[in-house]
Amino acid sequence: MARHLTLVPAPDLSPDAVRAALDGTTPLGVLPSGPPAVVEAARSALRPEEPLEVGADLVVVTSGSTGRGRAVLLSAAALRASASATHARLGGPGTWLLTLPVSAIAGLQVLCRSVLAGTRPERLAKGEPLAAAVRRMPVGRRYTSLVPTQLRRFLDEEPDGLRSFDAILVGGAATDPALLDRARASGVSVVTTYGMTETAGGCVYDGQPLDGVRVRVTDGVELSGPTLALGYRLDPAATEAAFAGGWFRTRDAGTLDADGRLTVTGRLDDVVITGGVNVAPAAVEATLREHPAVADAVVFGRPDATWGQRVVAAVVPVPGATPDLPALREWVTARLGGPAAPRQLHVLDGLPLLHTGKPDRRAVAALTPEV
Length: 371
Prior knowledge:
Oligomer: single chain
Organism: Blastococcus mobilis
Keywords: Ligase
CATH topology of the largest domain: Rossmann fold
Domain AMP-binding enzyme C-terminal: 284-358
InterPro entries: AMP-bd_C, AMP-bd_C_sf, AMP-dep_synth/lig_dom, ANL_N_sf, ATP-dep_AMP-bd_enzyme
GO molecular function: acid-thiol ligase activity
């Protein structure tokens, strides 16, 4: 008998619903919160009216940061493998604090890990102090997952709350080394994670693959192992292209050292070629965030008659600061070289975010007019 997805809006997703999906009772598709167009696009990707592919138990729509999001087919086995390997790496099961939207894999995995560990996740309410949520958590091992923007904010406002956790997984976007150093110097136990919806979330922690996960670098980073998704909903061609041979091709650039430690250096399709030089936006963003006047940054390329492409930066200033292009160009040039220095600057009050908590690069570009 054909199975069909039950669609659940992210705010209504409960541990019991996740448990039913992991037991194979009720396959779920998670609808993100947001404007009607976002919800409708997710519904269109999930296609609840069509029979569900064999073996799928949870279907999650990717953020679509560079285009339309895809519905990723996840099996209960992959989610269980991910949760088990995560707890083994961190030192055992514990109680999780949910701070991220459950429509994204990082937040959804907090629910999955909690269900599989037999614990009840605590939730951080919007605008609630971190310390208040921590006080509701039982004694024992405590974990949470954050995106870098949250880590930076809590380090500024509530470092004691961060020190209450046995481990804090940080992923969802490239994390600046300076931010990680600052957190660790403050006594915060941060663990960097690398993965995506197609790998049931983070599968490489602090550069080392979780148990059972394999990593190789060919034209880009490729991942394999028990946490891999089955593919994309009703899109066998895209599934074959991305998952052929049991390896998921990530479209990320990276290197493996002699000890098998992975370093991700940026997106293969996100390079700005300016004056014949390849510039990685992630490296420029990290350098800009180290400037004392910059709180956050997004970098992208735009067509340029002289350079082919020019580097464009959208920055959020530190309160009371006024970043200017000459100063930021000098700052980046001294650290990454002249080609990486932005030739266009836009100052924003804040960065628009996707439902995953990642910066919405397309929306940032729309907010920054051509000059």
